[in-house]
Design goal:
Blueprint: E1 5-13, E2 19-23, E3 26-30, E4 38-46, E5 50-60, H1 86-103, E6 111-112, E7 127-134, E8 140-145, E9 153-155, H2 164-180, E10 194-201, E11 208-214, H3 222-232, E12 238-243, E13 255-260, E14 264-269, E15 272-277, H4 286-300, E16 307-311, H5 317-322, E17 328-333, H6 336-348, E18 354-358, H7 361-365, H8 368-372, E19 377-380, H9 389-398, E20 402-407, H10 410-422, E21 425-426, E22 429-433, E23 443-450
Parallel strand pairs: 3-5, 6-22, 11-12, 16-17, 16-19, 17-18, 19-20
Antiparallel strand pairs: 1-2, 1-4, 2-3, 4-5, 7-8, 7-10, 8-9, 10-11, 12-13, 14-15, 20-23, 21-23, 22-23
The structure holds S-adenosylmethionine.
S-adenosylmethionine binds at residues 281-283, 312-314, 317-318, 332-335, 338, 360-361, 381-383, 408.
Length: 451
């Protein structure tokens, strides 16, 4: 079957970003094509329950197809749906949430509202990470991952999800590293120095951070680097160096040195200011973050007698924004950098009725502080993996009146929602919010209340 060319009608889009068709009653995952299209494809892998195929030619085009604006679109792992109209992207994102709730969570009575679209569909990101890798033919690349490849990076010229200035900095850093002959990390054998460039530009203040993540060791000729990059880009407000000797491919560091400026950027949400440091989480689409939080707060209906636990609180944004409307808030977060910034943020915003706990959610939930806090409301905004089984068990044991669950992954949300409903919570409605146009990612807000 491998290598065989076939004509396939595309019927759906899968959560992985692949298109879906059928051949002789078997599902085929395609690397291109849109629902309603007929394609000529070559089978690349055959498994007992499905085949994989690569699209050679589109034989009949969908009227929902639009030209992709980005020259990297054909191979970049960032955007998968730039060739589908934005309205249709939202339709498929809603379908993704509905399917997950029904199939994984077993929840058929929950209403999934229409997805709230992003105000900006391009240049919406306030943060991007770019990776270095050695190239097989010699030299190196600096840019984004090729679709489906953790070990292949292509040289980025311009990314439409971020500001052109960000792409210009990436091109400049690549030239600098080449000119200076700095060694570049090789992901296959974990040697070499330059690993990532992370750039964060606050939407509202225009503060601009460049964070260079390297293997262990001081930055060579660092004064020259600082002088040259800040001369080339006077818009840079802070420059940070993070050292990371771990094999895991993440653009964070263990040893941080601020090379220039204050070491953080300041972003605004509603009327509040938030400091964001290199290693701490902040939502990447600033404008849509306000929408997501507003939707969540509307569902929660805050009251002055609410004692709120904000689990997975990051830099404290949700708790700080909610604090004026409730009795008190305790934020819980694993990353110590984020907790440090969360405390600064509470101080900067004059929020007195909030405190923070550094540690894991599952440990906090069995701590004395958790038992004594008399929390009646819990907010959870976990990473893509959703709630850890022990955290879930302890949360259910805790029995809050309401749980505001913000999720960036409908599959793990559906799994957790199924458990909460089985434990006696109601989930009448889910409100998806699109934070990531042109990708298959979708965020959602929901409130579970005790029966
Ligand atoms: C999706 S972010 C949410 C951050 C924040 N609520 C916001 O809206 O900006 C998830 C956060 O959970 C933190 N985290 C991950 N695992 C954790 C754990 N086991 N216990 C506590 N925090 C954790 C991450 O460091 C990250 O800051």
């Amino acid at each position: 079957m491998n290598g065989k060319q076939v004509e396939i009608e595309v019927t759906d889009l899968a959560f992985s970003g692949k298109a879906v068709g059928h051949l002789d009653g078997k599902v085929v995952f395609l690397d291109g094509g849109l629902p309603g299209e007929k394609v000529l494809a070559q089978i690349t892998a055959s498994r007992p329950r499905f085949d994989k195929a690569s699209v050679i030619k589109i034989l009949r085009e969908s009227e929902r197809r639009v030209p992709a604006v980005c020259p990297h679109f054909a191979y970049c792992g960032g955007c998968t749906w730039q060739d589908l109209t934005y309205q249709d992207q939202l339709v498929y994102k809603k379908k993704q949430v509905t399917d997950c709730l029904e199939r994984i969570g077993g929840l058929e009575d929950t209403t999934v509202r229409d997805v709230i679209g992003s105000v900006e569909v391009f240049r919406y990101r306030n943060k991007m990470e770019f990776s270095f890798n050695t190239a097989p033919e010699g030299g190196f690349t600096l840019g984004l991952h090729r679709r489906g490849r953790f070990d292949e990076i292509f040289d980025l010229e311009r990314c439409f999800l971020t500001q052109d200035l960000v792409s210009e900095i990436v091109v400049w850093v690549r030239d600098y590293v080449c000119r200076e002959g700095l060694s570049v990390y090789d992901v296959s054998n974990h040697t070499g120095y330059m690993r990532f460039v992370m750039i964060r530009q606050a939407k509202r203040t225009r503060d601009l951070m460049v964070n260079v993540v390297t293997n262990y060791g001081d930055f060579p000729q660092r004064d020259r680097f600082i002088r040259e990059i800040t001369t080339a880009f006077p818009q840079i407000t802070t420059l940070v160096h993070n050292q990371n000797g771990q094999k895991s491919n993440v653009a964070t560091g263990e040893i941080e040195t601020v090379l220039f400026g204050c070491g953080y950027v300041e972003e605004r949400l509603f009327d509040s200011s938030f400091r964001i440091r290199a290693n701490s989480f902040f939502q990447t689409n600033t404008v849509q973050t306000e929408t997501l939080y507003r939707v969540g707060f509307d569902l929660l209906e805050p009251r002055p007698n609410y004692r709120v636990l904000d689990l997975y609180c990051g830099t404290g944004s949700i708790g700080i924004l909610l604090a004026p409307y409730v009795e008190n808030v305790v934020g819980v977060e694993l990353v110590s950098d984020a907790i440090k910034v969360a405390r600064e943020n509470a101080h900067v915003n004059g929020t007195k009725n909030i405190s923070f706990f550094e540690g894991s959610v599952k440990d906090f939930l069995k701590s004395k502080e958790a038992q004594e806090g008399q929390f009646n409301i819990v907010i959870v905004d976990p990473p893509r993996a959703g709630l850890h089984p022990k955290a879930m068990k302890r949360l259910i044991g805790f029995g809050p009146e309401k749980i505001l669950y913000i999720s960036c992954n409908p599959s793990t949300f559906a799994r957790d929602a199924g458990e909460l409903v089985a434990a006696g919570y109601k989930l009448p409605v889910v409100r998806p919010v699109d934070m990531f146009p042109h990708t298959m990612h979708i965020e959602l807000a929901s409130v579970f209340s005790r029966n």
